[in-house]
Amino acid sequence: MIEQLPVLLVVLPIVGGAIPLAASLVSDRAGWPVATVTLLGQAGLAGLLAWTVGTNGTVSYAVGGFAAPYGIELVVDGLSGAVALLVAVVSLGVLAYARQAGPHSGPFYGLYLLLVAGLTGMTVTGDVFNLYVFLEITGLAAYGLVASGRDASAAVAALKYLIIGTVGASLYLLGIGYLLAATGTLNMADLATKLGEMAAYDSTLVLTAFGLMVGGLTVKVALFPLHTWQPDAYANAPDTVSAFISALVSTVSAYALARLLFSVFTVEFLAAVPVARWALVGLACVSIIAGSALAVSQDSVQRMLAYSSVSQFGLVIAGFAIATPLAVVGATVHLLGHAVMKGGLFAATGIIERKTGATTVNGYAGMGSRVPVSAFAFAVLSLAMVGVPPAVGFVGKWYIVLGAVNTENWAVVTVLLASTLLTLAYFARLVERLYFAEATIHSKPDEAPVTDGSGQAVSFGMIAVVVIAAALAVALTAAVPAFEQVLRETLPPLLNQ
Amino acid sequence: MFELLNSHYNYFAVMLLLGIGLYMLIESRNLVKKVIGMNIFQTGIFLFFITLAFRTGGNPPIIKEGGSPYVSPLPHVLILTAIVVGVSLTAVALALIIRIYTEYGTLDEDKLKQLYYD
Q: In the record, what terms sit under GO molecular function (chain A) (predicted)?
């Protein structure tokens, strides 16, 4: 039973997703209950799997009974177990938000569950080509979800996302071709051993493969300057979808990038080819600075949050690329914490817009008294994102900075510390408006509302999601030591160098 | 130079397809042509994989007495999957383009930008 859990996690949402799609021929009301039951099962299985990995170590499963280097292998260790659990829990939470916020249609919930299947597949797979297939399933479902808003601008944003995302995934596929030419295998563990032996780390073939695969995935993660699809997609999608994809899609892509760095190319590759490591660190640092600068200059709150993601993912990728044990733990903690915080922030903007019509930074002035609970949750999540202790944002950033200090690369340390100040620059502005400014306007009349127009009511479930996200942003700090222990046990070659 | 062209013409075709596809994707103002460019770009990648599988004097990978050397069957299987993915992407892209056209009445990217930001 336990060995079959990884494959069940992928199959369950696919099967569950087919039901609302078929039922929508008769009625659209079946979508939400079916999705809820499916994701409750998903969260239970993911929890059981994460618990098993935490106590007994890595779980692996050979799909179709074909043994590892030839068949497709699903591998779950501490890192992927945590991400799979995050995917299940966040998608279940966003569902509580979707009950009222919509869109209310069968196909929407079909796509929603397909996206969960794609994300979980990317998380548990141990095969680079299988990762490509799940990357595209995730992409297809995400394009459809972004376009599910009633406004046609959502379709424009989705098409832009589709074209840029496909180029990214195609570059990744091309990189797989180079790796296959170099080693003749697609299994991650097998690649890790063969890369050093059969093809030298600094051979052109391996370097090109690294560049193409990492380049392709950074498009999906949305690092500067490959982020251009992301603000449009987040701002034009329905609120439910913004909260969902901002929390998970880039997160799982960043996880895939980490998996590629540590389980395929390995730390020895990064040590043997310093230029690859520093190119990635450099890209991440540029992304931190540029993302923050763009976020500060935004007028729309949702676009500001989108650019904030560009900056925060720069921080996460910098942590992975520095690749000291501390930095990797920090990057993982920040990756998971960011998902909860950013999803909560997007959900809160949806509630504030529904209640007051405010969508811009100036429109938020004085709203602290009109939507007290949501505004308070928004403020808590903002401060957690800045990294005020004891929030989880602080722990992640602290570990990444400590890891960078250990490598004695002071330029990187400076950028990492500056990033905290820059994050403060754009979030403090909002929190200050919320509580200390006179209410000016409700919203600018020339701005199109971002909701799908399915009623402006706010349910208890929506507010509960935001409050729980804010509580988790603080409470997750307590789980960090245990999580660090699990990571150290299941990723020994990586973390005990 | 001519010998290289003669022995590696597949790779030149791959480079041409990738280049043409990417150029169309970036440079064309027409949304449908962008999608066509995306398809050409992917076709270049497919050809690259199929070329990888080839070996001189290789037989089809059906195991029999004295059959070796075989060509590698793996890239063909991968590309079969990748073609399916490519077709689904094209379908979604075209559906989005139809939606955009019915709403804005244009497929030109520049005109769309003006309408989009108004």
A: NADH dehydrogenase (ubiquinone) activity
- For residue A445, pLDDT beyond 70: no
Which residues lie across from A127 on neighbouring strands?
A187
A152 SS3 class: coil
What is the extent of the structural domain holding B86?
2-116
Q: Which residues of A107-121 are buried (b: 16+ CB within 10 A; e: fewer)?
A: bbbbbbbbbbbbbbb
- Could you give the C-alpha distances from A264 to A109, A244, A330, A463, B52, in angstroms and in order? 34, 29, 21, 42, 21
Q: How many whole angstroms from its chain centre is CA A181?
A: 31
Please say if the pLDDT value at position A455 is more than 70: no
Listing DSSP states for B73-92 in one string gives SHHHHHHHHHHHHHHHHHHH
Prediction pTM value: 0.91
Any chain A CB within 8 A of the CB of B92?
yes
Q: Residues A221, A224, A228, CA angle at the centre, nearest 5°?
A: 80
Q: Could you state, in order of their start, the residue ranges of all structural domains in chain A?
A: 5-495
Which residues does chain B have within 8 Å of residue A191's beta carbon, measured at their own beta carbons? Answer: none
Question: How does A280-301 read in b/e, with b if 16+ C-beta sit within 10 Å?
Answer: bbebbbebbbbbbebbbebebb
The rounded percent of chain A whose pLDDT value lies above 70 is 95
| pLDDT of the residue at A134 | 94
- The DSSP 8-state label assigned to residue B60 in this structure reads P
pLDDT given for residue B40 in this prediction: 94
Look at strands A59-62 and A73-76 and give their pairing: antiparallel
Phi and psi (nearest 5°) for A35? -60, -40
| CATH code of B65's domain | 1.10.287.3510
Min Cα–Cα distance to chain B from A114, Å: 14
Residue from the list B35, B42, B81 with its beta carbon closest to the beta carbon of A133: B81
Residue A310 tokens read as 């560009």
Contact B74 A162 (CB under 8 A): no
What is the CB neighbour count within 10 angstroms for residue A131?
24
Band of pLDDT at residue A420, cut at 50, 70 and 90: confident
Nearest-Cα residue of chain B relative to residue A130: B78
Higher pLDDT, A83 or A371: A83
Domain tally, chain B: 1
In angstroms, rounded to a whole number, what is the distance separating the alpha carbons of residues A259 and A257?
A: 5
Which phi and psi angles does A360 have, rounded to 5°? -110, 165
Residue range B59-85, pLDDT digits in tens: 888 887 777 788 888 888 899 999 999
